[in-house]
Specification:
Layout: H1 4-7, H2 16-31, H3 44-63, H4 65-69, H5 78-103, H6 109-117, H7 134-152, H8 161-189, H9 193-212, H10 224-229, H11 237-255, E1 265-267, E2 272-274, H12 280-290, H13 294-307, H14 309-330
Antiparallel strand pairs: 1-2
Bound molecules: fe (ii) ion (FE2) (2 copies).
């Protein structure tokens, strides 16, 4: 486990005045766009917010490997299979960067993984939906990775250094993912009538869950205000959602597909698309664990963790052997 908590002891405030001075210094640094680094003093709530957000993000990357991983053995060509394997592997890498970023805040990877496996930790609601056709793989890349980029680009400027730096690399890879998804959709949309139907079906399934990925409306978002002040979250949920709709609707039109929203219309005066009401009850249900595949996703992660136990044990035994050898050489 990272030893940051011990390192920070020297700068613990000893009185309320000290604490106020530390808060003022911290807030001035954030306001001046300076990055906060792991050994810097930070308010307990800033640390807790980051642990919650970064770990939810890490879990989402890891659980997000499952809906597409489901299609690796059935990808239609060898080329598609290679691309999909690389994409799913990228998501595993994103999870690893993010768990490392969370560890710099004084929580161990074991604790983080335990929170996911026992069902305590949240992850993105979208990964609890099924992928019944190959077109769903295209729709995930286009819409889900597309929404992720929209959410994550502002995080590259997040005030916490390790998170911001992880996001720069992750965003570069997500943009490849988005393009590979769109290219699958384009191929299907230009294919046979059956392929076009498949593409439309996938858009119908993923459109609304993608809009939910930006989180509850600003008026109901419990964490947004403080996160914006501390420059963890720099753009509001509703603003990001609107950007996504404005960006994605013309792409659907180019594909010749219909966005499944009868209320969708262009508003020339505002320069934005207006869209219909989101079913927040469905979102709440999925978040509470009652989505189509919540139970299967956690069961799959638990099985993978149990099956990987021998790898973790072997790695620890190997590290122990190396340590003993080095100690023997030094003696
Ligand atoms: Fe990712
Ligand atoms: Fe991705």
């Amino acid at each position: 486990m990272y030893t940051q908590a011990l390192d920070a002891l020297g700068s613990l405030p000893t009185s309320a005045t000290d604490e106020q001075a530390l808060v003022s210094r911290f807030e001035a640094r954030v306001a001046a766009e300076q990055k906060i680094e792991p050994k810097d003093w930070m308010p307990a709530r800033y640390r807790a917010t980051l642990i919650r957000q970064i770990s939810q993000h890490a879990h989402s990357e890891i659980v997000g490997m499952l809906p597409e991983g489901n299609w690796i053995t059935r990808a239609p060509t060898l080329k598609r299979k290679c691309i999909l394997i690389a994409k799913v592997q990228d998501e595993g890498g994103h999870g690893a960067y993010l768990y490392s970023a969370a560890e710099t805040l004084g929580i161990s990877r074991e604790q983080l993984i335990e929170q996911l496996l026992c069902g305590k930790a949240k992850y993105s609601s979208i990964f609890n939906y099924p992928t019944p056709t190959w077109a769903d793989v295209g729709a995930i890349g286009w819409l889900v990775d597309g929404a992720a980029i929209m959410n994550q680009i502002p995080l590259c400027r997040c005030s916490y250094g390790p998170y911001a730096r992880a996001m720069v690399r992750i965003c570069r890879e997500e943009s490849f993912h988005q393009r590979q998804g769109y290219e699958i959709m384009l191929t299907l949309a230009r294919g046979t009538p059956e392929q076009r139907r498949m593409a439309q079906g996938a858009l119908d399934r993923w459109w609304w869950p993608s809009l939910m990925m930006f989180g509850p409306p600003d008026a109901q978002s419990t964490h947004s205000g403080e996160s914006q002040r501390w420059k963890i979250k720099r753009v509001s949920n509703d603003e990001l959602r609107q950007r996504f709709v404005d960006f994605t609707v013309p792409q659907a039109e180019f594909l010749g597909l219909k966005v499944p929203d009868p209320a969708l219309k262009w508003n020339a005066a505002s320069g934005h698309y207006e869209f219909g009401a989101i079913d927040w009850q469905e979102f709440e249900q999925v978040l509470k664990g009652h989505g189509p595949l919540n139970a299967e996703r956690i069961a799959a992660r638990r099985a993978a963790h149990a099956e990987g136990a021998w790898v973790r044990e072997a790695a620890l035994a190997h590290a122990e052997k190396q340590r003993a050898r080095a100690a023997g050489r030094a003696a």
